[in-house]
Amino acid sequence: MSTQPLAPRRTYLIGKARPNAIIGKNRETGEIAVIIAGAFLGMMCGLLMPLLPLRLAGLVGFPLLAFAAVYMPYRRRTFYKWVEINRTFRRTTRTTPTWRSAAPEAGTRMADGREVEIGPPPGIGKVSWLSAPFGPDEIAVLLHLDRRTVTAAIEIEGPGVGLRDSEDQEALVDRFGTLLKHVANGDGFVTRLQMLARTLPADPDAHAKDVERRGDSGAPGWLQDSYEQLQSMVSTSSEQHRAYLVACMHYTRELAAEANAVARGSRLPRGAVNKDAGLAAVMSRELTDICARLAEADIRVRQPLGQARLSSLVHSMYDPDHPMDHIQAMTRRNAWPAELDATHPQFLQAKTRESVTREPWCHATAWIKEWPLTPVGVNFLAPLLVHTPDVIRTVAVTMDLEPTDVAIERMLTEKTNDDADASRAAKMHKVVDPRDIAHTGRVDQRGEDLASGAAGVNLVGYITVSSRSPEMLARDKRTIRASAGKSYLKLEWCDREHHRAFVNTLPFATGIRR
């Protein structure tokens, strides 16, 4: 009797994040500018100072201070990083420490019955709401004027990857990769996708209440006792998991021309051309194509998010007590909370008018500082998404897509730099760092994937945790950090900038530079 050897399960590698700079390796452009400024000041002191001690102090001190500001660890970051964070935090606490919604006093126009627009909370930016037909329904299209982007969201239902065997899991991942390839290399205008996973606690007594309401009161006593005993043995911790896909288009000259052409083609006789409506129509068309690709990847589209559903979703992220499916009287200006307090450096406080208690909700956001540097399987995020009960959280992964040709050029540049560094180290007889060898292997595998037609994807991830009190929030943050460690992720909490980082877990496809 012979047995066939099992094929090894496919693993995936995610490359290490490397900042892009004009010069220098792994350094931002601003950091290089600080080092150059320190060297310039040191050189000027060496040339202009008349006294030798002052000349030596300036010649050595300014470059040392510049290098310390860029390289020396300071409170888990660097002094250079903290300067901008502290500046914006002080400006926020000085100008708008507590934001209050003006929705009750805004009123409604009597001429057309439309609500008077109000501004969003700090960190959101200027947003214009539009609607476009999407099949039999309508979809909300948001114009982010500050970021020059157009976004729309749909609710999806995943294929249940954890319930399938390894071959089916890999097939589903390959199909989703095909979706990314078509979006990145196609003729469409969508350049960014965001996946949102929202986890909320459900009613643990829902089943017992349903049995009490619809059960047969005339059933035998032994049967009722047996069922109650069985029900007591079942875990009462229940959650609801909702998933959303957000598509984003960057406003370019080509997109403006296409929107203008669509608006001209759909305008009424003697009617003015509405370019914003043209942008909404283009987004609806792009999302229709993406939904067809999602069906091929075995991802079911539950419903598009119109203005009421999108407002309810955003509102529930500020106040988890608000049911996401409660869309009555939900308008665009009711999406924002009643009060927003960003004065605390370690969390953000938000309160709505229909809150159960007078205490606000506390939110803390962390960004995924490091993705897995070792081979991982398909379900490497399962501990964070599924296996962390009783924690209200939102996990957002934003994927900036680039065509295969552009990604191959970037990969070749990185490969050339790595080979040059390895050759230089070999000539100087340096010991080879095993991390550099692993990184070279990741670059090679990425090159093979790109050669087979895969799209270039730049990833960024954020996690928002919501709790009723600062003490519960601190406990939930420790729980999330432990779950992220099981997923081979490293987190960093966005202290002093939670009001800006929280926006990255809203359905706006933000948080990544292009």
Q: Which short descriptors sum up this protein?
A:
single chain, two-stranded antiparallel sheet, alpha+beta, 514 residues, 13-stranded antiparallel β-sheet, 2 domains
Précis, in short:
The protein has 514 residues and is an alpha+beta fold.
What does this structure look like?
The chain has 514 residues and is α+β, with helices and mostly antiparallel strands. The protein has two domains: 62 residues; 350 residues, no CATH class. 42% of the residues lie in helices and 20% in strands. The chain is built from 15 helices and 15 strands. Strands 3, 4, 5, 6, 7, 8, 9, 10, 11, 12, 13, 14 and 15 form a 13-stranded antiparallel beta sheet that branches. Strand 1 and strand 2 form a beta hairpin. Helix 5 runs antiparallel to helix 9. It is globular and about 100 Å long. It starts with 28 loop residues before the first helix and ends in a 13-residue tail after the last helix. The mean pLDDT is 82.
